[in-house]
Amino acid sequence: MATLSAEELQQARIDMAAAFRWAVRHGLHEGICNHFSLAVGDDQFLINPYGLHWSEITASSIVLAHYDGEVIEGDAEVEATAFFIHSRIHKLCPHATCVMHTHMPYATALTLVEGGRIEPVEQGAIRFMNHTVYDEEYNGLALDTAEGDRIAKKMGNNRVMFMGAHGVTVAGSTVARTYDWLYYLERACQAQVLARSTGLPLKRLPPEVVQATIDQFAGSNTDTAPVHFEALKRVLDRDEPDYKT
Question: Quick one: pLDDT band at residue 218, thresholds 50, 70, 90?
């Protein structure tokens, strides 16, 4: 990918900080753990600094690191699992400009049960069909290149990966599009976990309706993610303007 200009890099930092702040507001975060990253060219990526709660993150606190682990800009280190997961996905998955890994509760819940899958039983879930892969091989903490490579290869060209006993990873072309998918993925998983909690069977949609809806999503010319993300940033501009600093 082309290296970002100084102006583009600053805007990327602002967008990343906004995503972290909203992950807290949406309940997608887990203390100082989990990680969002953005490839910026020259084998470099932006990523959250180790030790900051996501409600504290600002544009200037985000670390710029090299795929080899060197911190280029920033006063904090990159948490080890963040480095091994994100650097390898960015390196091996060309579509993964932005990578968001969380242990958000409802999506993670589906990784903890036998046969846990997001089922095409409602409109929100259908959006993720044909873009999702399931990794059943939990090997403990990702603390080496081999495990990072295994995760990246499992991700392939998919946009969503459910990681057995380990949350989810979402990849996309921009911060806005990736966060939009992360948010709506959790909403779809929440609906399914709640539906399953009733003890009643899921009501299956006819296959032809599912396929028609998949085609509608694929053929839509309306890209709502940037509009959604701009709205989120306007709320932060009003309530938490320090995220840009």
Answer: confident
Q: How many residues does the chain have?
A: 245
Q: Give the residue carrying structure tokens 């044909």.
A: 130
Q: What is the mean pLDDT of residues 94-105?
A: 97
- The pTM (predicted TM-score) of the whole model is 0.95
**How would you class 54 by CB atoms within 10 Å of its CB: exposed for 0-12, middle for 13-18, buried for 19 or more?**
buried
Asked if the 6-228 domain carries CATH number 3.40.50.980, the reply is no
The domain spans of the chain are 6-228
Model confidence at 219, pLDDT cuts 50, 70, 90, reads confident
Question: Residue 220 — pLDDT band, cuts 50, 70, 90?
Answer: confident
What letter represents residue 184's amino acid?
Answer: Y
User: What whole-number percentage of the chain has pLDDT above 70?
Assistant: 100
Phi, then psi, of 172 in degrees rounded to 5: -160, -175
Which residues are registered as beta bridge partners of 135?
163
Chain centroid to Cα 185, Å, comes to 10
Place of tokens 């990794």: 135
Q: What φ, ψ does residue 83 adopt, rounded to 5°?
A: -60, -50
Cα 101 from Cα 99, distance rounded (Å): 7
